[in-house]
């Protein structure tokens, strides 16, 4: 097991059953991320949702994920939740909307850098990694500014019986936005918790005018500010019907297809 998830992450990863009262953690704690469900459960077709967006927003003002039936890409900015559906339409999400999978934090940046000149997606990821003082279970990122050559995606919701997530992603919608001012929010997770989350960088975009958004497949940032928050802990709430599996043991190829496809 030590080769799968090391002692540092064991102490920082907290897993518990979702209670009928919702999340049972202290909302005031800083540098803690809260997650509903797991990527593994989502991949297996558990798309109904047990926690609500309102419960998540009690614990964070920045986040990403999806909603019940996987009806699009969820973007949480400044404590407001938005959904980008399979047609690319952005709408505000009601607090009572269930979610099978989402992660939030109360964003408190520990480092920031100004961008003046074109930085592509690979360069953006390297920049975020370089701002982090140490490795940890979760790192949140927020970038505000001007973006170009955005390639975004979302998916259409499904009704029961739910198919596996890979099938839904295979029918995703992609589109391009030549230029937009807005915000990228997301997280970087370590390889050791693959299956609980998607390892690597997971980024969503929302334009300032709320006209465009989605899961980021490609982009370039040309001006603005990038800020990161290194989380000390990740709390994961598991619905009773969801199995955890073993953190770090997951189909990496399938996860890559879901994230980068």
Plain-language structure description:
It is a single chain. With about 260 residues, the protein is of the alpha+beta class. The chain has one domain: Hypothetical protein, similar to alpha- acetolactate decarboxylase, domain 2 (60s Ribosomal Protein L30, Chain: A), CATH 3.30.1330. The chain is built from six helices and 15 strands. The strands form three sheets. An eight-stranded mixed sheet has the order 1-15-2-9-4-5-6-7. Strands 10, 11, 12, 13 and 14 form a five-stranded antiparallel sheet that branches. A two-stranded antiparallel ribbon has the order 3-8.
Features:
261 residues, alpha+beta, 60s Ribosomal Protein L30, Chain: A, 8-stranded mixed beta sheet, 6 helices, 15 strands, globular, disordered N terminus
Summarize, please.
About 15% of the residues lie in helices and about 45% in strands. The protein is α+β, with helices and mostly antiparallel strands and about 260 residues long. It has one domain: 60s Ribosomal Protein L30, Chain: A, CATH 3.30.1330.
What is the strand arrangement across the widest sheet?
Answer: 1-15-2-9-4-5-6-7
Strand content: 35-45%
CATH topology: 60s Ribosomal Protein L30, Chain: A
Whole-number tally of structural domains: 1
Shape call: globular
The count of β-strands is 15
The main β sheet shows up as: 8 strands, mixed
Under CATH at level 1, the class stands as Alpha Beta
Euclidean distance between termini CA atoms: 30 Å
Average pLDDT value? 84
Low-confidence stretches: 1-12, 17-21
The total of helices stands at 6
Element order: H for helix, E for strand: HEEHEHEEEEEEEHEHEEEEH
Which percent bin holds the helix content? 10-25%
CATH superfamily: Hypothetical protein, similar to alpha- acetolactate decarboxylase, domain 2
C-alpha-based Rg, rounded: 17 Å
Helix-and-strand structural type? alpha+beta
Q: What is the level-2 CATH architecture name? A: 2-Layer Sandwich
